[in-house]
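Why does residue order matter? Because the sequence determines the fold. Keep that principle in mind as you read this record.
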Amino acid sequence: MIYQAYQAQTDAFAPFRMLAQVSQQFLNHPSHAFREMPLARHAAAALELVSRMGVSHKRPDFGITETKVGNRVVAVSEEPVVTTPFCTLLHFKKDAAITQPKLLLVAPMSGHFATLLRGTVETLLPDHDLYITDWVNARNVALRHGRFDLDDHIDLMMAFMRRLAPDLHVMAVCQPAVPVLAAASLLAQANNPGQPNSLILMGGPIDTRANPTQVSKFAEAHTVEWLERHVVDTVPIRYAGAFRRVYPGFMQLIGFLSMNLDRHVTAHVDLYKHLVAGDEESADTTRKFYDEYGSVMDLPADFYLQTIDRVFHKQDLARGTFKSRGHLVEPAAIENTAVLSVEGEKDDICGLGQTAAAHDLLTNLPTAKKAHYVQMGVGHYGVFNGRRWREQIYPKVREFIVENG
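Structure:
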């Protein structure tokens, strides 16, 4: 009844949030002379924080309408290429005849929408013909569409690779590092022409035994049966996916927030101060981050529980025992796909060494086709977003793709 209790609490608090929003807008209206008075500014700031309490289950927009290719500004549109109940293969189509490396960006299916990678997309777009996995909130997927589990994820990755081949490069951010590496391995085992030219694995849990984090320790400390009883629930009847078993996105968000609670509290205290001081630029930066961070999606329960069991409990891929649809996954079969792993020094979700472990599995891949990079001074989010991603990590990714084109 977790979801039902959450929904009841959300419904009960909604009028207060709306009232706070209307009151804040009233206090900040340009026509009011008292809006600059200290008391009014403090009250408006407090009301905005109240109005922002809670989460959203609506997918934000990417909002990317153009990019710069060389010295040219090129229009960009979003084009669905493949649509499935749980995922859309989305193409950022440029309005120009440009030949660029084809790149599939595999977004994490871990509680946030693919739009969390907006900054990643903006950085990659000028140099690549870019596609992304746009995951669908499981609470909006009707039961008639069936289940979605880890094997389905792998199947989908193989289908997308075959669809976009040849001369394809694939970047997996965090969680999908395992299913993406498994998909590439199975394609190699079948000598399928859909094998990508390169894989870039960004902060992914290939082997969670290396430098365990709070995330992996929590997963290992709780049985699948315990998690199924305590964090898996059914979607309330009002939604399209009514009665579907899910791991609710708000549960994942609570977990992420609790890992760095002091930092998030400080960010909101700073937001309050910025609002009182009239520093709209700083306030807007914080707003945008938490608008995205607070937009959550539910995960299919089968996918979540299998990931916990096979990735975090058994480390099947790292131990050489990972099977998909009854077939043993053998990364050693990869001989032509170059692999770059990227890690953050301060990553508290995928610790140092967890992604680099992929190279130990690629026993038949020439050393010249393997690369590993550790970015100093960044946590998990900084591996694929922010200034160091743009200025230090991305140039290495771009060069790796060019070298293996």
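The mean pLDDT is 93.
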